[in-house]
Amino acid sequence: MCGICGVYGEKKTADVSKMLGAISHRGPDGKKIEVSPWGSLGFCRLDIFGSSGANQPAISIDRQVAVVFNGEIYNFEELKASLSFKEDITDEAELILALFLKYGEKCFSKLKGMFAIAIMTSLKLILARDAVGIKPLVYFSYKNRLYFASEIKALLQVKEDVIEIDEDALGEAAVFGFVFSFEKTMFKGIGQVRPGTYLVFESGKIECKTFYKLPSSFYEYSSSNETGITSKFSSIMDSSAKRFLMHSKHPQSIYLSGGLDSSLMTWFLQKNSHAPLDTFNLFDDDKSEDRSFASKVADELRTNHEEIKTNIEECLQWIDHYLYYYESLVTDGIFNVIGSLAFHILSSYIGKTHKLAYCGEGADELFGGYYWMHSHPLGFSDRLRSRAYQVNNGNTRINDYIQKKFPANDSQEDNIRREIFDILMGPGLTNCHLWSVDRSSSAFSFEARPLYLYDDVREWALSLPIEKKISGKNTKILLKKYAQKLGSPLFAEIATRKKIGMPAAMNVSLKNLSAYALKEFSNKKGDDNPHKQYASFFNTDLERLMFDRFYQIFIVNRGKVPHNVTSVDKM
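The chain above was modelled as a monomer; its predicted structure follows.
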């Protein structure tokens, strides 16, 4: 993981320096600014492979093309071997430069991994983002210039006009729980590069082009043989784990919740590792079942396991820090705010000792998780329509989408499940879970890698029909069957037990946070509410508390570091 930023259309070196300073936490091991006649690029490096300094931007011999890159290219060696001048390529930025010089804009479809790329030439700027948006890339245009960065806070340092909330994006977050539009952020005028696409900025105009389109979750699969499917799952996860483990020379860690996804991920990673991996679990109740199962998995797989207990006081200390780095809002829509806050707190402990961690994001989306949505699709549909009616902020695109995809007169559960899959695998994954994973890991200067979202795993899982994932109220069928075949009584029990989930596993903290928010806003109703124009967007006082702090940090203070964020960093 690294941080990238830049401006095209003018040099603006001072602006790039400001942006780079705002994202220095993403790359504390070296930084560099490259200035050309048509723009400037900034880069800060997180050392994953044991080298030092800043080895980017990569620049062509004639100095007409420059590349900055954030992420990991897992087929680096194969792509390097395909080039005639491979001896000159020592890192991924140089590989991307070589591929671009040979293939032009077609180079992006050849990459396997997670990436955000900026390619600057004398004629244009190109911004590209990986297939599902694991790595972030945000931008805005101003006076024939285009600014881009890994995080919004960098752009806010140089944005000259007023910083405003995008009410359409806020309305989407109020309905779904996250910004639904791939291209939007919570800030008016600041967009993000859509996953699987690249933007071309040329002669003051922006054009979006697609190099990858997420396939339907309902592909037909050529084989219905159960043994063949579980064997394929085993082999593809094994090869992916081996490939991931090769891409670091530092101690490697795992977010281990004790549920099926993270436990299976730990199984594959540990069995392919030459040394014990380090696992981490967060809890707020000594009687937590998830805590107990995480500990049992760690014991069986012989990982180095660390348990972290949190409480309401710690959660309150972290709220501003979380919001400052998260740069968006999670409301009680499809998901729950406490889950991403808990992930942030756990990341603060991992970052003290590690530069790399593996997470289970993508497993629910690919293999049919989220029991309550798939087991009660009609209730989910009703809830979306109800929230859209309550918010009713004039966002006709979202209202039309909900009426088309979740009509009140549709009682066919399979139809609704298809739409749920699309939401979960699309904006739910990119704009909620992956957004959270990137921001929280980068806040503490380490890289988080979602094993289930490796290209080979993702494409194979998307090729499976729904009956291999969900049957009635039975979800994650394939993962459960595989866990039961491992010959481990513990994994067989994990496969059949009801997973609590991070929000419910933090139920004590959630209740206490909600009580605190109620007290904070008890005297801020009606005309006394500082954000009364947004009253219909929020259901709970906890949502109002989060929005109030978000508004202060980003709108009132223009994304400057809150004083209490610095103090938390020193904990």
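The CA atoms of residues 433 and 459 lie 19 Å apart.
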